[in-house]
Amino acid sequence: MPHDARLVVLVSGAGSNLAALLAAQQDPAYPARVVAVVSDRPDAGGLDVARAAGVATVVVRPADFADRAAWDAALARAVGALDPAWVVSAGFMRILGAPFLAQHGGRVLNTHPALLPSFPGAHAVRDALEHGVAVTGCTLHLIDEGVDTGPILAQRAVDVLPDDDESSLHERIKVAERAMLVETVAQVVRRGVAVDGRRARIGR
Q1: Is the pLDDT of residue 118 over 50?
Q2: What is the helix (H) or strand (E) element at residue 86, kind and residue range?
Q3: Are 32 and 25 within 8 A, CB to CB?
Q4: Is 89 within 8 Å of 113 (Cβ atoms)?
Q5: Binding site residues, as ranges?
Q6: Which residues are annotated as a binding site for (6R)-10-formyltetrahydrofolate?
Q7: Which residues are catalytic?
Q8: How many Cβ atoms from other residues are within 10 Å of residue 53's Cβ?
Q9: Closest C-alpha to 139, from 111, 107, 169
């Protein structure tokens, strides 16, 4: 199967999910390829991961724009110029606003280190530990106007161990998250996504 679905990956951090996608696309049967990586931070480790793989990189820094709306519009233009079939937000630590969603809405996937709707936001692993849950995990969902509120496409459960701290739990969640992302992106590319209100399913 040819690499015919173009992915643009948004990163703010080290890029472990990006690395998992890049590894997966080495298999000729994988139905997508990362054509570019876009970051809000010029020092994001994910940019180095992309460059090492020969993938184009773009930086759109909020500090270079007059306000949030101007940055969001610039991000939308930068991603649009790359002509993606899907956009993957993988550790991108900014909320995508109306200008971006107006152009790319319905085609943006986001990973989150908790079983949504529990523990949305930037501190999901810490919040799960503080709440004392026995099981947490990760979610892949479509992005909408809210914070981690979009329709859910996939989830994986991860047990919380008695001696877990935030770092150890997060590392195990990341392992599950990478596998979930690679598998679900392939399913989405091959079969499409149907959304009915809060419900999303793979396959039209």
Answers
A1: yes
A2: strand 86-89
A3: yes
A4: no
A5: 15-17, 68, 93-96, 110
A6: 68, 93-96, 110
A7: 112
A8: 16
A9: 111
Torsion, Cα of 21, 27, 32, 35 (10° steps): 70
- For 14-49, the pLDDT digits (tens) are 999 999 999 999 999 999 999 999 999 999 999 999
Name the one residue in this structure whose structure tokens are 């610039």: 74
CB 96 within 8 A of CB 148: no
Q: Average pLDDT of the chain? A: 95
* pLDDT tens-digit series, residues 53-66: 999 999 999 999 99
Cα–Cα distances in angstroms (integers) from residue 168 to residues 8, 125, 140, in the given order: 29, 10, 21
**Residue 116: left (phi > 0), alpha (psi -120 to 50), or beta?**
beta
Report d(CA 81, CA 132) in Å as an integer: 45
The angle that helices 166-191 and 16-24 make with each other, rounded to 10 degrees, is: 40
Q: Are strands 199-202 and 193-196 parallel, antiparallel or unpaired?
A: antiparallel
Q: Which residue has the higher pLDDT, 85 or 204?
A: 85
Q: What is the pTM of this model?
A: 0.94
AA letter at 136? T
d(CA 158, CA 32): 27
d(CA 156, CA 136): 8
